[in-house]
Specification:
Layout: E1 4-6, E2 31-34, E3 42-49, E4 58-66, E5 72-73, E6 82-83, E7 105-114, H1 126-133, E8 137-147
Antiparallel strand pairs: 1-2, 2-5, 3-4, 3-7, 4-6, 7-8
């Protein structure tokens, strides 16, 4: 089963407005989702950029312990979940900020429905969250947006 994620800020595969980037106010975009399976205990969200000139995708947002009663996040809101450490070294959303002239980057907002509630504290990294979720993912979905710094 797949979770369907949408945003009022950008179309799937379309450009992410400057407002949601490091060149703008850097607030997280509004997101909505459907298709969370019955029996889910918790939701988690990871946003990363696999086009970054780094060995691993650059992590922009790690968000977990989201209630399964949520069907979306308002702009700039973490929905009451815990925020983990992004690759900017912050426990918050860090918007697109690719190197100037590096071309179009793709930002993957990935939502996971889990069959368990994680015993987690704030500040988890993407790798730590993925390790804790292993074997507990009931469904997932993805929304991709793009951004280019000229």
């Amino acid at each position: 089963m797949a979770i369907q994620i949408t945003s009022t800020a950008f179309e799937p595969g379309g450009p992410i407005p400057r407002k949601y980037t490091g060149e703008g106010p850097d607030v997280s975009p509004a997101l909505s989702w459907t298709g969370v399976p019955a029996g889910s205990k918790e939701l988690a969200l990871i946003c990363d950029d696999p086009d970054a000139p780094t060995p691993k995708p650059w992590v922009h947002w790690v968000l977990y312990q989201l209630s399964t009663s949520l069907t979306g996040l308002r702009e700039g809101d973490a929905g009451g979940g815990l925020q983990g450490k992004n690759d900017f070294g912050q426990n918050r959303y860090g918007g697109p900020m690719p190197p100037p002239g590096h071309g179009v980057h793709h930002y993957h907002f990935k939502m996971y429905a889990l069959d368990t509630s994680l015993e987690a504290g704030s500040g988890w990294t993407k790798d730590r969250l993925l390790a804790a979720m292993k074997g507990h993912i009931l469904a997932e979905g993805e929304l991709i947006g793009t951004y280019e710094r000229k």
